[in-house]
């Protein structure tokens, strides 16, 4: 009789231990499943899909500070493209210069005024000269504020009979400002100066 009770008591302890282990295992599995589910949801929320040409292209969201060097270099490139890409058309010159001047302070406006007063734009128009720029590299010092940059580029002046190539090096500083349609990168170029703009070679067309 007592032996039977001992067997029942042992069986109850085994069942209780087994049940406790099963509950703990289920809780652990559920916790892991919930954790990875939240990770997947968070990762899915960081994905952005852009439709282009009938295809869905995936992009990823990231913090603004992660893209700061890229944004800074792109701002410098965009400004130089607008300022130095000129057609022999006064309306086109005014339009590109207006875009460039949204990205910089009075130092760029002063350079523009100097070129206009010297007759540079008039010479482009009367001579049917197109001006193009190729940005070789942009260096930005992220260790100081405002950010100091230096831009290395080549200019091409395309005439009817020849193409002249010039070396161009400029530098300045970048100050963070509010983003807008006219200034999507959120920087303003300050104290912009041209360090070098010398003739390299001329070739016949």
Automatic annotation (TrEMBL):
InterPro entries: Conjug_transposon_TraK
The protein's name in its UniProt record: Conjugative transposon TraK protein
Biological classification of the source: Bacteria, Pseudomonadati, Bacteroidota, Cytophagia, Cytophagales
